[in-house]
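Exercise 3.2. Students should predict the tertiary structure of the chain below and write it as structure tokens, then compare their answer with the key that follows.

Predict this chain's 3D structure.
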Amino acid sequence: MDANNSQWKDFRSRLVFNLVFIISLVFIKACVVDQTQIAKDLELTGYALLQRQLSSDRVPIYIVDISDLEVASFNIDGQTGKATPREPLRKIIEAVAAWKPRAIGVDIDFSPDQNGYITPRDPEFFQSILDLRRKQNMPIFLGIKRSEALRPAVWLGSEDYKALAASITIPKQDPRKMPRWIPLSEHSECEPPMSTIRADEHSKCGRTMSAGLADTFREDHCKFAKWMLQGPWIKFIEHISERKLPGVEVPEFLVDYSPLDSLMGKQRLQTIKPVVIQDQGRQLRSKVVLIGDGTLGKASDTFVIPGRPQPVPGIYLHASAAYTLAMAPLYELTLLGRIVVDFLLLMSILLAITSIHLYKNMPGEDKTHWWEDLLTLLVMIVVIVGGMLFIRSTCLIWSDFIVALGGLLLHPRLEKFFWSLLNKIPKILHAIVSRPDQ
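Answer key:
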């Protein structure tokens, strides 16, 4: 009877130790391990692996690649400089608009610099595009970058052209995420997502190119995760996250890059000749069309995408971001969500081991750990296979699952080491106390 009581007492001590150990391990991972560069690199790898599971069978976006339209020198009214020639570009836009696409975005920075408009004829060019927009009743957006710190209403130099302006900023340090809006201050209140087509001169937040284009063809296919955001689960998942910059919080969203192969292949028309667009542009009808540099080696802005061997021109990032917002928004776990998932994974192993120990009455420390290793392996397989299938149906990205798998793998070893160390402490203290004075 005393032996049974001693065994039960040891079992309870071991169970309490494991609970404390698991809680400590989860918070160490969240507060320390996840902040290391190794964990961040593994998270990029996990993001790239999960991206491959996403499907993009229907991509209603088309690229008109005008990489051959080179920057040219100009001398207008005594002002000299270099810029993308406006007149050929205007004819290209008109040729695209003739096919009645849903919207057009031009991935070129048209914003003025400290000296004013890039070319003296820019106001005329903007007005012609504005007239075309009104005539065709079609959203057309011109990119800006230099004037981003100004009020969105004057991004193109005048409030007359505020309906055309859209930011084409792309974060260099982490292109997994793109800005949803461009806030001007930390406490800016942005327009609702569905109103980004309309420009408000008093708005404290400016539209991005991807948001403006996405609002023209919203067909959200991820109903499950969207439903979760409306319930108590909102604490565990998020669609828009906040990235803190000096004096401002930028709302960002994860981008689905699965359409890249289609956008860089069959969904691309490379030409600078309006007549070619007129003859071959029937595929542009009812599509969202992005015009800009889409050829690697000619595009001035390229970005490294996780899982891609070569850099990608920025126009494809804008297209992928618009596709994500409109058709397949991605969701990610919040910090609390990650902590809960990590805790549940480790607890599943502990509960399984506890059940085996109680109902099978397994003798021997070594045999218990053998079962623990087996169950850990099974949980890891479930996480990998289930995670791959889960993302397809929920659009929920758990990008740090590789780090979590590492924690599962190390858990039995660490638990055994610290349990052994804990058992040795009383003996060490007893030896110190009972040691005779020298």
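Discussion points: Residues 61-327 form one domain. The chain has two domains: 2-52+332-434, 61-327.
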